[in-house]
């Protein structure tokens, strides 16, 4: 049973050279889409997927680069594939996702709710939930936009996926030193200040023992100019397939194409 990750995109919210920072996690042929931004429908198509190939979708927060593709997903699943997609999200996001984002486009009848379009699985923060056999996720509440719910993800107790978060070195140290996290995919704003994201200059203050297991995503279009300027950290490459279990350290960096 191998966990693989392929980023549909590795770009920031304003990037144009990269798609939105959305990921496909695959275990034993089952596909979990982590975030479904504005560019996700086209990015999936470019990788040879259609929406019916998705076994579940998980949303970290309600910015458009993370959920702006859900309207098309819901409509395609309803009108083309005739089934409801499975949606995982924090219990605190269920109401705002519908009321503040999706209702305006999806609702055609006043009786329709989020559950009219998705099989909704609300998740509790701090609890390990089985998504598929061999894939568990724990939501970790992290700071992004003041007073708005936002979550990072811990997969199978060893793979931390930050989503969008401000720099939180104490969390990262606790995850690695106390909880045994081996791999970190972290958002990285290339230019300071990191007001709503971790920025590169902050991430570079992490000890080497954390940097060497950290892979950077959610970056801007000038990312190529930062090659060789990321300390022990590496950039995640859009569309490349990584075998997460084999990413224990940079030297054991595994790739499947
Ligand atoms: O200079 C900036 C530009 C944007 N923001 C905030 O970022 C988010 C949108 O980007 P995400 O990657 O989806 O978080 C939005 O809240 C903007 O206000 C910023 O703070 N500074
Ligand atoms: Zn974002
Ligand atoms: Zn965001």
From TrEMBL:
It comes from the Bacteria. One of its GO terms (molecular function) is metal ion binding. Gene3D superfamilies: Ribonuclease Z/Hydroxyacylglutathione hydrolase-like (3.60.15.10). It catalyses: 3',5'-cyclic CMP + H2O = CMP + H(+); 3',5'-cyclic UMP + H2O = UMP + H(+). Transmembrane segments: none annotated. Pfam families: Anti-Pycsar_Apyc1. Residues 20-218 form the Metallo-beta-lactamase domain. InterPro entries: Metallo-B-lactamas, RibonucZ/Hydroxyglut_hydro. Counteracts the endogenous Pycsar antiviral defense system. Phosphodiesterase that enables metal-dependent hydrolysis of host cyclic nucleotide Pycsar defense signals such as cCMP and cUMP. This is Ribonuclease Z. It comes from Cohnella luojiensis.
């Amino acid at each position: 049973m191998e966990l693989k990750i392929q980023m549909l995109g590795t770009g920031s919210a304003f990037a144009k050279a990269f798609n939105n920072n959305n990921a496909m996690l695959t275990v034993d042929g089952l596909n979990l889409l982590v975030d479904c931004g504005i560019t996700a429908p086209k990015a999936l198509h470019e990788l040879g997927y259609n929406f019916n190939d998705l076994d579940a979708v998980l949303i970290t927060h309600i910015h458009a680069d993370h959920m702006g593709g859900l309207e098309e997903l819901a409509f395609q699943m309803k009108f083309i594939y005739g089934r409801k997609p499975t949606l995982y999200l924090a219990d605190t996001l269920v109401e705002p996702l519908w009321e503040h984002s999706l209702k305006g486009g999806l609702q055609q009848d006043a009786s329709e709710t989020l559950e009219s379009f998705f099989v909704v699985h609300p998740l509790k923060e701090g609890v390990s939930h089985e998504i598929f056999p061999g894939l568990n996720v724990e939501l970790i509440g992290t700071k992004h936009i003041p007073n708005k719910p936002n979550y990072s993800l811990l997969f199978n107790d060893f793979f931390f996926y930050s989503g969008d978060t401000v720099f939180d070195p104490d969390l990262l140290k606790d995850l690695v030193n106390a909880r045994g996290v081996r791999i970190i995919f972290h958002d990285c704003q290339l230019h300071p200040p990191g007001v709503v994201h971790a920025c590169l200059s902050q991430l570079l203050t992490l000890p080497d023992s954390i940097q060497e297991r950290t892979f950077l995503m959610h970056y801007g279009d000038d990312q190529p100019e930062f090659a060789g300027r990321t300390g022990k950290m590496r950039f995640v490459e859009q569309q490349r397939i990584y075998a997460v279990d084999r990413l224990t350290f940079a030297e054991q960096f595994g790739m499947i194409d």
